[in-house]
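debug: dumping io for the single-chain case to check the tokenizer round-trip. Nothing else runs in this session.
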Amino acid sequence: MKIEGNSFSVPLEQSDDGGSPLLHFNIRYRQDKEKTEWKDMQLSSDADSVSLQDLSYGSDYRLEVTAVNANGSSIPAVFNFTIAEQPVSSRSMTKGSVSGIVMVIFLVVFLVVDATCCYRNRCGLLMSIAVKLFGQKVPGLKTLEDGEATTNGKNLPGRDLHTVDA
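debug: decoded output
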């Protein structure tokens, strides 16, 4: 027996025991569940296999093969087999995989734009994270800790406009 996808085949072997010549094969098959109709077909005497195509995925089947000659029919050979569930194609893309790809593309574009902003203008999310995590000071921002600050716009006599002695 050979099962590939939703097809089933079984080879037929004829034996010449000196009796009447074979006329044909009677084939009957159906899904192995209640109230399912038998499907009949007839194969010629020179057929070398029984092939069933387009069977339902995830179903059990019953096949009966009977040889017929001038004296009558043989006892049926019975085969029970199962067609596996339909395999998921690796090429098909679900809605989830498409939306995941779109989200990754947007994330990459966002990071490129933010990195450019961080490098050129010293702004953006990456710059904010760098300042929070690494404590780096933003160039151009003068603070009291650096010793550079103004005194509310008033100049103290004899001192530089931008500095206050500590």
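debug: round-trip ok. The chain has two helices and eight strands.
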